[in-house]
Amino acid sequence: MAFHLNDPVTALKNVGGKREKLYEKLGVRTVGNLLRFYPRSYVDYTSPKLAAECVPGEPAVIEAKVLKKLTPAPIRKNMVLYKLLLTDGLSNVMLTIFNNEYAYYDMKVGETYLFHGKFSTMGGNYQLTLSSFIRAEDGEVMRPVYNLTEGLSNGMVVNNVKEAVANWGRLLEDILPQEVAARHSLMPFEEAVRTIHFPSGKDAYDRARYRLAFEELFLLSMSLLLLKGRDKGSTEVQIKDPDMGPFYASLPFELTGAQKRAIGEILSDMSGQVPMNRLLQGDVGSGKTMVAAAGCFAAFKGGFQSAIMAPTEILASQHEATLKKTLEPLEMKVCLLTGSLTKKQKDALRAEIAAGTYDVVVGTHALVQKDTVFQRLGFIVTDEQHRFGVRQRGELVKKGERPHHLVMSATPIPRTLALIVYGDLDISVLDELPKGRQKVETFTVHSDKRKRALGFIKKELEAGHQGYIVCPLIEDSDSELMAAVRYEKIIQTNYFPEYKVALLHGRLKSDEKDQIMNAFKEGKIHLLVSTTVVEVGVDVPNATIMMIENAERFGLSQLHQLRGRVGRGNAQSYCILVSDNEGEENRRRLQVMKETSDGFVIAKEDLKLRGAGDFFGDRQHGLPQLGIADLLEDSALFRTAQGEAKALLERDPGLEQPEQMRLRLYMDEIFGNNDSGLN
């Protein structure tokens, strides 16, 4: 049988259609994907403890002999409790196994095993709730633990990975240049992959992880350098000293110092010979749209068009409304180009855009389609840019002759991390909120206080305000999570019969979403039951209260984004986080939400809790994904890898040397269509 890394996972033993779908949920479609599906942690069997040395409430590994098996006890439907009496030679331990018939019958009385699980004491007796076990004589001393989905056990993944390593591992090739690997004494790639899945000990693990993290960060650095290099060269869009007086005079409020500073940085960039490539970071409600509007006005004064690309039609419509209100009194024409327009409407609008009728074009992905042509595009804004791929942003840039590019993000990132992640961008930060904004009071409650919380929401509605209730799911599933569809029906009937309650979620058609949001903005809807579709950009100043169900299901930064939908007017606003999860990590997360409203502080805590490894991969679609490297923990390694990438591109800008062939092919694949900026 011929083996290929792109073989589907069904090429592995015991992987049929059902398990294939489970792997797909984890992003694993091929055997090559599985080999790079690194463990999230390990059970270290190398140093077992005596029961007397273990800490109650914490995970533990003990070496013990099975003395006796107790009779299995069914405790409810589809749940059986298994118990075994163990001895570690000094103390007895009662082992509890939930619903794992295989483990119970696999263990033999009189044999010794290494047991891993949660240790506890009751009435002076030692207890261990089993997570996993191995035979004492087994040589596998560090057992991998993988991210899983329901229906896929850790044992299944371990067996599949063992087969993949044995039969496909030899196909793994080094992308890193040999001289770089030699300079840093890096383990060969195949050996590193095999070792990271099944390390023989801590030293072997450390060497394998270093090798794999170095490669990920090297490839990421190379991609960012190529992105940055692609935009080099002079631009004809040089706008010198535009008269911004009319713009400032037309505003009904004074800009914050941070907004003025950011506008100054943007105007300085737009006057230069090199195209601007700037990130505008601002917390929710910090006024990024006004800064973008100033850039559009400057472009207009220079005789150029502007394009603003948003990830959703709701956000694009909102930008269009704000920009029309701000810019049309200044004799600028603003239009909205989205996928929901009819073909006839799109064709007519595109003809006018090409003729230069419109000065500012706001839109969604429709902006990057081939049929959209600009007369003289000089300024581009991509909002919530992490939702767009590298290629999409590149396609929009190509619509002009080296236009200036402003990237906006309401996802705060600690500055040191932003400098790494956005290595191809200069950075402006809006760290002030407009005057009159009040801190949103945040509370946490258990679900048994839900009725009381709904009563609090009712008081806000009685005062003439509006509110949101956010659920993690759209429709019911087998889980205990709140689903928006059922929730909306229950509260409309039982709690808010005299108010208009509406449902908003991602499966609705674009025009339906727009109708609901417009009715909410106009005050025709009092309470919106929604999924996270309201996370970004929805601006309704009269909304003063938000309740988030199953708050433990959301990341800290996502909770902060959701909370940012209230507190946008002058009235005191509130956020209620509902969660029954008593885990230490969840308590810490929710405490952070209660204590601070600073998005940068929250982002830092979020990164500490969940690591930065997935931060970049989740948000920068199109660039190399990080599977093992951590941008916070590996910042020194990142700088080393970045230095090697820079040095290589200086020596061989086009990666034309024979030893760089694999690296060049990889970069072309990442960027697509040989658009990597390589010669």
Helical fraction equals 25-40%
Low-confidence stretches: 612-621
β-strand amount: 15-25%
Q: Supply the CATH architecture of the domain at 245-430.
A: 3-Layer(aba) Sandwich
* Average pLDDT: 86
- C-alpha termini separation: 39 Å
Q: How is the biggest beta sheet arranged?
A: 7 strands, parallel
- Label the overall shape: globular
Oligomer: single chain
Number of strands: 21
- Going by helix content, strand content and strand pairing, the class is alpha/beta
Rg is 28 Å
Can you list the strand order of the major beta sheet?
A: 11-12-10-13-14-9-15
CATH-defined topology of the domain at 245-430: Rossmann fold
Assigned CATH class of the domain at 245-430: Alpha Beta
Organism: Fumia xinanensis
Domain Helicase ATP-binding: 269-430
GO biological process, one term: DNA recombination
Domain Helicase C-terminal: 449-608
How would you characterize this protein structure?
- There is one protein chain.
- The chain is of the alpha/beta class and 679 residues long.
- Among the domains are: 94 residues, OB fold (Dihydrolipoamide Acetyltransferase, E2P) (Beta Barrel), CATH 2.40.50.140; 186 residues, P-loop containing nucleotide triphosphate hydrolases (Rossmann fold), CATH 3.40.50; 156 residues, 3-Layer(aba) Sandwich (Rossmann fold).
- It has a seven-stranded parallel β-sheet with strand order 11-12-10-13-14-9-15, sandwiched between helices. Strands 16-21-20-17-19-18 form a six-stranded parallel β-sheet, with helices on both faces.
- α19 packs antiparallel against α20.
- Its EC number is 5.6.2.4.
